[in-house]
Amino acid sequence: ESDTLAPIAVDAVLKVIDAKTATNVDLNDIRLVAKLGATTDETELIDGLALTQRIARNAGGPTRIEKAKIGLIQFCLSAPKTDMESNIQVRDYTQMDRLLREERTLLAKMVRDIERDDVEFISKILGVEAASSLDTFTEDKLAKADLVCEQSLGTELGSIIRFTGLSPTASGCCSVLVRATNALLLDETERSIHDALCVVRSLVKKKALIAGGSAPEMEVSQKLAAWARTVGGITAVCIEHYAEALELIPYTLAENA
Question: One GO MF term, please (predicted)?
Fold first, then answer.
């Protein structure tokens, strides 16, 4: 799967940094979103935001919105209450159903809960601050996206919501949608992508690369063995043993692979 995941890791890092001037990478700007229901080959880089929470259907919300306005709020949504006490008489179930529908339409058409840990990332990628109360929920707190769409994966797997074409003020972040056919493979794929991101980050920090898999240790071992043959005496024996010790590293890696 390296042919699929490695380019995604490189492209993700390049989206959140300036390759000419960057000396580090904040991996918090790259959000890994894991979702079952597809093969690892379908893992993709999304130039925008991806959510896997179930969409609110109580208000009959749409599954696709173009030129969308998005609000990020951190307060409880509920239907407004009257200032005075009042009683409503409901004579049959149709009136009750109508009352509930009208109450739900007062809420947003597309509302979903997100984890508290995700608020900072979502706020950054959308380019807006989260509103902490209704009084602070003003027009300037609304993000804009060219398209918000939901991809349904069935009753059991839920859905994926993509926010693409975000406003120019929302930059420096991206999402990687990680896919797999089972939970074990999904966790392993997510870990592999994170490891790949760490490797690319190391290259950004220092523009140098050496081979892995104990190749450097074997190169040093060969050089030491060649040097020992030119030294002679007890010193040569010590150098040879040190060279042989380095050869244990690839054996250990192979056993643990």
Answer: ATP-dependent protein folding chaperone
Give the domain range for residue 243: 215-256
Window from 105-109, 110-114, 181-185 with minimum mean pLDDT: 105-109
Q: Do 196 and 233 reside in the same domain of the chain?
A: no
Mean per-residue pLDDT over the chain, rounded: 82
Residue 111 has pLDDT above 50, yes or no: no
Helices (H), the chain: 2-16, 93-104, 119-126, 183-205, 215-231, 233-246, 248-256
Instruction: Establish if 210 belongs to a structural domain.
Output: no
Bridge-based pairing state of the strands 174-180 and 44-46: antiparallel
Strand partners, 145: 68, 166
CA 200 to each of CA 7, 102, 207: distance values in angstroms, whole numbers, following the listed order: 10, 52, 10
pLDDT at residue 75 above 80?
Answer: no
- pTM above 0.70? no
Residue that the structure tokens 């890696």 belong to: 253
DSSP for 59-104, please give it: TT--SEEEEEEEE-B-S-------SS-------SHHHHHHHHHHHH
Q: Are both 223 and 187 inside the same structural domain?
A: no
What length is written for the chain?
257
Contacts of 26 (CB under 8 A, 6+ apart): 16
